[in-house]
From TrEMBL:
Coiled-coil region: none
Organism encoding this protein: Anaeromyxobacter oryzae
Protein name: Ferredoxin
Keyword vocabulary terms for this entry: Electron transport, Iron, Iron-sulfur, Metal-binding, Transport
Taxonomy, superkingdom: Bacteria
Residue span, 4Fe-4S ferredoxin-type domain: 19-50
InterPro entries per the UniProt record, alphabetical: 4Fe4S_Fe-S-bd, 4Fe4S_Fe_S_CS, Fd_FixX
Amino acid sequence: MINVDDLFDYTSFNIDREPHIVLDAARCGVCTARPCTTTCPARCYTWSEKDRKMTFVFAGCLECGTCYVVCEKRAFTRWRYPRGGFGVSYRMT
């Protein structure tokens, strides 16, 4: 069995210049639970209490959809898989 943290040893990313996930900052700003920050296995979401702002880094996204499922505010203006040839590639050897 593989640990999620070890998964990055078996993945590669072909990063598109256009993000496949885009957040609505206003919706993130009114969210108090912020489940994306604790459930994303790639830790792509970071909340800054000082700036009252959510930051999302799509370059390390594992495309699992966890954030989409747990987001209570439906804060995505776009959530889709990356264009063909881009995104994460898993190799388990």
